[in-house]
Amino acid sequence: MSQTKSSTDTSYRTGEIVKHAGYYLSESGKKNKLQEGERFPACPISGHETTWSHAH
């Protein structure tokens, strides 16, 4: 069974597809502008998987 994100989830993992274009912050605090349809990248500091949150 596939898991889906609820509308209350606010973090995204490296490799997930960006659903809404905008600015996102990595766990390391780096801001990145991402476009809809792109994949969330690895951490810009460590190069490893990370989580991203929408920057407000």
Describe this structure in words.
The protein has 56 residues and is mainly β. It has one domain. It has no helices and four strands. The chain has strands at residues 11-13, 22-26, 31-34, 51-54. A four-stranded antiparallel sheet has the order 1-4-2-3, with no helix packed on it. The protein is globular, with a radius of gyration of 11 Å. It starts with 10 loop residues before the first strand and ends with a strand. Mean pLDDT is 88; it is low at 1-8.
Features:
4 strands, globular, four-stranded antiparallel beta sheet, 56 residues, disordered N terminus, mainly beta
Quick rundown:
The protein is mainly beta and 56 residues long. The protein has one domain (11-54).
Could you outline the blueprint of secondary structure elements for this entry?
Blueprint: E1 11-13, E2 22-26, E3 31-34, E4 51-54
Antiparallel strand pairs: 1-4, 2-3, 2-4
How far apart are the termini?
A: 33 Å
| Number of distinct helices | 0
Strand neighbour order, sheet with most strands: 1-4-2-3
What's the structural domain tally? 1
| Beta-strand proportion | 25-35%
